[in-house]
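Protocol step 4 of 6: structure prediction from sequence.
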Amino acid sequence: MNELVLPVDPPSVPTDPVRTRRDPAATRQKWIERIERFRSAGVTVAQFCSVEGVSVPAFYQWRRTLAAETATEPLDGPTVIPVRIARPAPAVEVALPSGAVLRFAPDCDPQQVAALLRAVGAISC
């Protein structure tokens, strides 16, 4: 039998035999910029991903990853917040003839205290 054998082209081989990995820092930066664009785009995630040429699951994964990094990044240094501890002013106390003691906040209204004392009969007028 006579068989016809056709020449077969060898598979195309990249000119650079060493495979290069993508730079993780560059990929991360690309996703940071992409998510910032999404925030101002005013479209749905699906619409945005379609235009950007990325998958919806990849978008959500990167958004979670970057949000977690932001949440756990330490601040540049300790935060010092000035605090003023005020001593509480002493309460105003009125001892009634019956032995009962009425305590009022230091910033209470004197007219209301007088009205209360008149109402319980502690003072006249």
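Step 5 (inspection) to follow. The radius of gyration is 39 Å.
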